[in-house]
UniProtKB/TrEMBL annotation:
It comes from Pleionea mediterranea. GO terms for cellular component: cytoplasm. One of its GO terms (molecular function) is CMP kinase activity. This is Cytidylate kinase. Pfam families: Cytidylate_kin. The lineage of its organism: Bacteria, Pseudomonadati, Pseudomonadota, Gammaproteobacteria, Oceanospirillales. It catalyses: CMP + ATP = CDP + ADP; dCMP + ATP = dCDP + ADP.
Length: 224
């Protein structure tokens, strides 16, 4: 499979989602929102009453979840469908993010999701958004981007995002939660959050979205 792939990895609130969408619009490529897979899995496990220690059941769920995604240009978001029904904002809450990172530490769950994620590599190309897109899932990607920003900046962005959706949150609690989730994502033994070798690293703390996008776009065009 030679279809081009651009990977965008980084911590929560680094602006990955927004940049992935801008690229998707410009190139007319779909997005793999891998975080949404972990979020849906965490939610489905919770609803089915499967504990995070029950690895066999979690792996089964990871392999068999009837999950599909649509990149909706109008909504600025990848919409997840479970069994043909839109999952909605239930996966976008902070609690869902925490649940996602709890199932994401399990190596067996990650490997069960590997093939599913690689299936997204199709013509004309793919923008893959996550934590390990450039390191593990698409190590041969044409362009690899790693976005970061200070924890404070990221908490503020998350706060505003949630507010826009009408989901209430406390900035202070979000900052704590972001730090906790980062710590878990960075220190796990399998596929920890680190920039891929040779990745183009952008710290967006003091940059506007337009500035980040133009740097990322220029880099990507050189690589494709
Ligand atoms: O990107 P998002 O915040 O939606 O991801 C939710 C959680 O899913 C992350 O905190 C991380 O634990 C997990 N995740 C992952 N690998 C990915 C994408 C997300 O472990 N490629």
């Amino acid at each position: 499979n030679n279809s081009p792939v651009i990977t965008i990895d980084g911590p929560s609130g680094s602006g990955k989602g927004t940049i992935a969408f801008r690229l998707a619009q410009k190139l007319e490529w779909p997005i793999l929102d891998s975080g949404a897979i972990y979020r849906v899995l965490g939610l489905a496990a919770h609803q089915a009453g499967i504990a995070s220690t029950n690895i066999n059941e979690l792996v089964k769920l990871a392999r068999d979840l009837p999950l599909t995604f649509v990149t909706e240009q109008s909504s600025d978001e990848v919409v997840a469908y479970l069994d043909g029904e839109p999952v909605g904002d239930a996966i976008r809450t902070d609690e869902a993010g925490q649940r996602a990172s709890e199932v994401a530490v399990i190596p067996e769950v990650r490997s069960a999701l590997l093939a599913r994620q690689r299936d997204f590599q199709q013509p004309p190309g793919l923008i893959a958004d996550g934590r390990d897109m450039g390191t593990v899932v698409f190590p041969d990607a044409d362009a690899k981007i790693f976005l970061t920003a200070s924890a404070e900046t990221r908490a503020e962005r998350r706060f505003n995002q949630l507010k826009q959706k009408g989901i209430s949150a406390s900035l202070c609690a979000l900052l704590e939660s972001i730090k906790e989730r980062d710590e878990r994502d960075r220190t796990r033994t399998v596929a920890p959050l680190v920039p891929a070798a040779g990745a183009f690293v952008v710290d967006s703390s003091t940059l506007s979205i337009d500035e980040v996008f133009s740097q990322v776009y220029e880099y990507s065009m050189k690589k494709l």
